[in-house]
Design brief:
This protein has 220 residues and is of the alpha/beta class. The protein contains 8 helices and 5 strands, in the order αβααβαβααβαβα. It is globular.
Length: 220
């Protein structure tokens, strides 16, 4: 009778110990699983990032996906860019985008259409600032992509426009790519016939303009 009682106690002890061991063993595996789950990068831009005039696999965002894969970096890239997007229409859908995709990093590439339409720089600045604030409130890292416009819009407007990006980067302490079209703008052999959008051969340069800052953000 006593031996049966002690056998039951011993059996319960073994089972409890086994459960504890199994839990402890599972914890690192669970942590590893979470670590290996890819983070999300959302590219939130206009036609320059939507790949206007290009084949689907030619745009710089597609090249970004390929580079991340080649370097075994665990990031998923979602291209949420829309041709013709202004900062106003972008702001209208920005909050929902954050809720839907829950990104770790947002690449914010907007403003060119505001400039081409001659929209007030103050309004553009406020819209970009609001999107930056929404990202920071959700603890999302943001990379701001700077733009410039041709001088035919007038010296003051052109200067105010280009100054917007470094001003916002300093104000909100976010990373900045000073000029998205660096090395491309003004090069007729790299621009489509519309005089605005980079050709397929220029897409690697767009990626290279973004990569250093983005890479520094991914490593943190």
């Amino acid at each position: 009778m006593y031996s049966h009682f002690f056998y039951k106690v011993a059996l319960k002890g073994i089972l409890a110990f086994s459960l504890i061991v199994a839990t402890l063993v599972a914890l690192p595996a669970t942590a590893q699983l979470k670590k290996s789950n890819p983070q999300t990068i959302v590219v939130f831009g206009d036609s320059l990032s939507a790949g206007y005039g290009l084949e689907q696999n030619q745009g710089w965002v597609t090249l970004l996906k390929a580079r991340l894969t080649a370097q075994n970096l665990s990031f998923t890239v979602i291209n949420s860019s829309i041709s013709g997007e202004t900062t106003s229409s972008g702001l209208a859908r920005f909050k929902q985008m954050l809720a839907t995709h829950k990104p770790s990093i947002v690449i914010l590439e907007l403003g060119a259409n505001d400039g081409l339409r001659g929209l007030p720089v103050a309004e553009m600045r406020n819209n970009l600032s609001a999107m930056i604030k929404q990202s920071q409130a959700a603890n999302i890292r943001l990379l701001l992509i700077g733009m410039k416009i041709p001088p035919n819009y007038g010296k003051k407007y052109t200067q105010d426009f280009s100054d917007t990006y470094p001003l916002l980067a300093n104000q909100h302490a976010v990373k900045l790519v000073p000029f998205f079209l660096e090395g491309i703008a003004g090069q007729r052999n790299l621009i489509q016939d519309d005089g605005l959008h980079p050709l397929a051969i220029a897409q690697p340069q767009l990626l290279n303009n973004v990569w250093p800052m983005l890479n520094s953000m991914m490593s943190h």
